[in-house]
Amino acid sequence: DVKVTQSSRYLVKRTGEKVFLECVQDMDHENMFWYRQDPGLGLRLIYFSYDVKMKEKGDIPEGYSVSREKKERFSLILESASTNQTSMYLCASSTRRGAGSPLHFGNGTRLTVT
Amino acid sequence: AQSVAQPEDQVNVAEGNPLTVKCTYSVSGNPYLFWYVQYPNRGLQFLLKYITGDNLVKGSYGFEAEFNKSQTSFHLKKPSALVSDSALYFCAVREGNTDKLIFGTGTRLQVFP
Hints:
The complex is a heterodimer.
Chain A: E1 4-6, E2 10-13, E3 19-21, E4 23-25, E5 31-38, E6 42-51, E7 54-57, E8 64-70, E9 73-78, E10 87-94, E11 104-105, E12 109-113
Parallel strand pairs in A: 2-12
Antiparallel strand pairs in A: 1-4, 3-9, 5-6, 5-10, 6-7, 8-9, 10-11, 10-12
Chain B: E1 3-5, E2 10-14, E3 19-21, E4 24-26, E5 33-38, E6 44-50, E7 56-58, E8 64-68, E9 73-78, E10 87-94, E11 101-103, E12 107-112
Parallel strand pairs in B: 2-12
Antiparallel strand pairs in B: 1-4, 3-9, 5-6, 5-10, 7-8, 8-9, 10-11, 10-12
């Protein structure tokens, strides 16, 4: 079974802090994703990576950056946290082998910025 | 632009009754469609997908979905609901020829004993 592990379940940070959210997958997947989930808005894609050191902006990249130095790890960085970044953050991975491969999600990190 | 719509924020059903969670899509070309379920304080779990072939797709936990090209719909169904099916359900469509998914806003399913 694919395992996607997000390092923190809950985080509380102050406005202006630099925040790192870490995600590791154990299935040698090429693709990794960061989504944020907000009530009534569903999931929105922040960033996508299809290979080591490769990244692509999603629908809402402003205020975020990412890092993928190793295939199994994909980090989301909030450069200067703001209260409107309070949300549930979901990491996912998928393989590029085969058409329509589903995304496999971690359990999420609930971030509160005060 | 590709999109999916889930017209119902919440669906209530009695245990043992059939359930349907609705999804409509808008894509150019042939759609790749997915259903996911999210239990409280958990990530999303993959239920089933449609890529091609039989319009009725069977998935995990007894769920199935029917692809209807003329109505651009992909409704999730189960013949007999369980209380444990209570969760948040998301429909998704592949974005173009990429590996990215576009998600709907979610439908909360509540199954009452």
